[in-house]
Design a protein that fits this description.
This protein has 19 helices and no strands. By secondary structure, it is mainly α. It has a single domain, classed as Up-down Bundle (Amino acid/polyamine transporter I), CATH 1.20.1740. The protein is globular and about 70 Å long. The structure holds phenylalanine. The site of phenylalanine has 15 residues, from helix 1, helix 2, helix 10 and helix 15.
């Protein structure tokens, strides 16, 4: 049983202190590396504006209805995804969708903590002047070297995975109100301030206009099925949907709170921050292209390198010299580290809640045990950037283990999980009961009919079409 002294709800679990705390925690989960690192990278690799447009369609048509569905399941089921589905539909195999969610949580944590560890490393570098290119060195070489030194060195990688996992675990172990809520209330405002500071810098750079044009004006010729597959996967990942984060966080919410508007706030915050992250990254990239005559293709097609190699290169050339490099470099990587931490907390909370609710483990023991397991699971991914050859690109799996796990969650586990949850609410459980749960806090839920239609037909059909296309693509050797 929980030993934390959190406020308890009817079944002795934690409870958010206020609705704002719930919205901030859910937004903190959603806003993460997926927004600041993933979204600009995905947009750059998939043709800019066209991708952004399809992404927003996915958010509105699929993301928002599924977000509300997860919150409803959580609050009605009053448990983690496994326990909640068992509670709402006892004696059926529906809880397996929850099991997939818990499993997905482990997989995501095992690679997420690796990038999160890098952000901590880079923050320390940036704050200590490590992003200032030493006299006589080429900046491209210097930053390529810095990145390779980190990824090829198992000691660094493992150390920073450990630091990050320790922070995540300590917060989750302290409980819903004393750990998660308290830390989120400090971290989210800091995140907003850093974001505003960085946008202010980026939009006033030379070349910013070009960056905006590439990013925001759709080129319809570039939109393909691949764009849609990527956009939907990105939407689920970015909104933390399809694995029960919002079920778990929703289970700590009081009955009198309004679910539809909460879902709306979380989705809007996440989408805005993803779009804003692009507003930081693209102008900066185009500034580089404008001032250094670096070919644009080299700048946008770089995967992980975009944020960790190219971006620092640009930070080191900012007007304002050393001070500007230190200030904006540290701000950028601190932003990433905070965003990653608030997301990792939610991932770990899903698994912890499962152990506490369904296995009746003590929260502290569950969290610390999990922290240890996640640390061990993250090591192979950490070593798959060149430190261990058979785990890396060109090794046993063709792509790196990191990319393999990332692609699997993105393109398979999360969409399948979200499909399962949409079908559960739309067809298997009961739309009537779902509406009743919503009405406890929102007596006149005006969009009820629309939501029923979206969760019953639009969301499942859209996910299915995209999943089928993806499978056809894979079989066709795409
Ligand atoms: N939404 C987080 C991000 O954008 C990642 C995440 C996915 C967190 C799934 C929880 C669950 O980085």
């Amino acid at each position: 049983m929980s030993t934390s002294s959190d406020n308890n709800n009817s079944n002795g679990r934690g409870l958010w202190g206020s609705r704002l705390a719930f919205i901030l925690a859910a937004a903190g989960s959603a806003v993460g590396l997926g927004n600041i690192w993933g979204f600009p990278t995905a947009a750059a690799e998939n043709g800019g504006g066209g991708f952004v447009l399809i992404y927003i369609l996915c958010i509105v048509l699929v993301g928002l209805p599924v977000m509300l569905a997860e919150m409803v399941i959580g609050r009605a089921g009053e448990k983690n995804p496994v326990g909640a589905l068992k509670h709402l539909k006892p004696g059926t195999p529906w809880f397996l969708v929850g099991v997939l969610g818990v499993f997905t949580g482990f997989v995501i944590l095992s690679f997420y903590t690796v990038i999160a560890g890098w952000t901590v490393y880079y923050f320390i570098q940036a704050a200590g002047g490590g992003l200032i290119v030493p006299e006589g060195q080429e900046s491209a070489e210097y930053f390529g070297g810095l990145f390779r030194e980190m990824t090829a060195n198992p000691g660094y990688e493992i150390l920073f995975v450990a630091v990050f996992t320790l922070a995540t675990t300590a917060i989750v172990a302290a409980g819903v109100q004393k750990g998660i809520e308290r830390s989120i209330k400090v971290m989210m405002p800091v995140l907003f301030i850093l974001l505003v500071l960085l946008i202010g810098r980026a939009v006033t750079l030379e070349g910013a206009g070009e960056g905006f044009r590439f990013y925001l004006v759709p080129d319809f010729g570039e939109i393909t099925w691949r764009t849609a597959v990527f956009a939907l996967g990105q939407a689920f990942f970015s909104l933390s949907l399809g694995m029960g984060v919002m079920i778990t966080y929703g289970s700590y919410l009081r009955k009198e709170e309004c679910l539809p508007s909460s879902a709306g706030y979380v989705v809007a915050t996440d989408t805005l921050i993803a779009v804003f992250a692009g507003l930081i990254v693209f102008p900066v990239i185009f500034f580089m292209a404008a001032t250094q005559a670096v070919p644009l293709d080299d700048l946008v097609a770089e995967g992980a390198g975009l944020v960790f190699v190219i971006f620092p290169q640009i930070l080191s050339e900012l007007p304002g010299g050393t001070a500007a490099t230190i200030l904006f470099g540290a701000a950028f990587f601190l932003l990433l580290a905070i965003a990653a931490l608030t997301s990792a907390i939610s991932l770990m909370e899903v698994v912890t809640a499962h152990l506490v609710d369904d296995w009746k483990l003590d929260r502290r023991k569950a969290a610390w045990g999990l922290g240890g397991i996640i640390f061990v699971l993250a090591i192979p991914s950490a070593l798959s950037f060149g430190a261990v050859e058979w785990l890396s690109e060109g090794g046993r799996f063709g792509i790196s283990l990191f990319d393999l796990l990332y692609t699997l969650t993105f393109q398979l586990f999360l969409p399948v999980g979200a499909l399962g949850l949409a079908i559960f609410v739309g067809w298997a459980w009961s739309l009537k009961k779902a509406s009743e749960e919503i009405q406890k806090g929102t007596p006149n839920f005006r969009l009820e009919k629309l939501w029923h239609f979206m969760i019953r037909y639009v969301a499942p059909v859209a996910i299915l079409i995209i999943l089928i296309n993806q499978i056809v693509g894979i079989l066709g050797g795409d």
